[in-house]
Every structure is written in C-alpha cells, then in structure tokens.
C-alpha cells in the first residue's frame, strides 16, 4: 500500500510546465509539513538552527496541475493526497541523482489568497446555469 496524506504550506509558487509533444500539464511545488515536536523540542531545534518542518516535493498532473498553478501560491495551506515515488537520473555532470517525491492524486486548497491577489471570483451566490436554484435570505431559515 502506497498512500500519503500531507497538510502543509507551500514554500514557493507552483511551477507549471507542459510536456513536449503531448501538451500534458505538470506542476511542481514544495510543501513544508511541521514535525510533531513539543514546545520545548521546537525551541531547542530552532536555537540550534535545525528545521522544525519536513520539505516534501510534490508533483501533480493534468487539469489539477493547472488549478494548483492558478490558485495556490507561496505560504498558503494545502492538503495533498497521493503516493510516494522514487526515481533516479544522470545529471549533466555525470553523477547519478536520486529523487523522492509525492505524486499527488488530489490537492485541497485549505486557504485562498486575498481577493486582490487572486483571479478567483466568488460566485457562490450566482446560479445562472442551474434552473430552480436562487439565493435565499438566511434570516428566513427556521433553525
């Protein structure tokens, strides 16, 4: 069984690119996931300059990759569900490099950027394409 669930903050904006010949979108970003440390241990780690979080490389493909690139940015909180993948490649200097990353199957946006910094428009009160649905006044709800 290979299943990973992480919650953390992006350390940088997602990097979106498209695979040549196929045009398949792929996005990469790093998630900072806090370690489970007591308050005292956390202070000790910080005083020694040791990290109090793990930095996990995330890869996501397809339409979700484009959504991540459009709506996630550095510092925002996100949840990632996927699988761990290991691979290796030969670097330009001839050395063998090994990579461990999470291939995301699902990403949940747990925070949104401020409206002024985002192209996201809240359309929760607009129902132009759904017949029979219209906004209601919350004051008329009996509970």
Descriptive labels:
143 residues, mainly beta, OB fold (Dihydrolipoamide Acetyltransferase, E2P), 5-stranded mixed β-barrel, 2 helices, 6 strands, single-stranded DNA binding, ssDNA-bd, DNA-binding, Primosome_PriB/ssb
Topology (SSEs and partners):
Layout lengths: L3 E7 L4 E4 L6 E10 L4 H9 L5 E9 L1 H9 L5 E14 L5 E14 L34
Parallel strand pairs: 4-6
Antiparallel strand pairs: 1-3, 1-5, 2-3, 3-4, 5-6
Tell me, what's the shape? flat
Strand content: 35-45%
How do the strands line up in the largest sheet? 1-3-4-6-5
* Extended strand count: 6
Count of helical regions: 2
Question: Helices and strands, in N-to-C order?
Answer: EEEHEHEE
Helix content: 10-25%
CATH topology heading: OB fold (Dihydrolipoamide Acetyltransferase, E2P)
Unreliable residue stretches? 115-125
Subunit structure: Homotetramer.
GO biological process, one term: DNA replication
Region (Disordered): 121-143
Pfam families: SSB
């Amino acid at each position: 069984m290979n299943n990973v669930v992480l919650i953390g903050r992006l350390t940088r904006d997602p990097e979106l690119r498209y695979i040549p010949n196929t045009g398949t979108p792929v996005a990469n970003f790093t998630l900072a996931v806090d370690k489970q440390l007591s308050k005292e241990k956390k202070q000790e780690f910080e005083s020694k300059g040791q990290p109090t979080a793990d930095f996990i490389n995330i890869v996501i493909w397809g339409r979700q990759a484009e959504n991540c690139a459009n709506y996630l940015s550095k510092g925002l909180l996100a949840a990632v569900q996927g699988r761990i993948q290991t691979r290796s490649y030969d670097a330009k200097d001839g050395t063998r490099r090994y990579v461990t990353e999470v291939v995301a199957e699902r990403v949940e946006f747990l925070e949104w950027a401020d409206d002024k910094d985002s192209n996201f428009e809240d359309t929760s009160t607009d129902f132009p394409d759904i017949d029979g649905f219209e906004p209601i006044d919350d004051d008329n709800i009996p509970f």
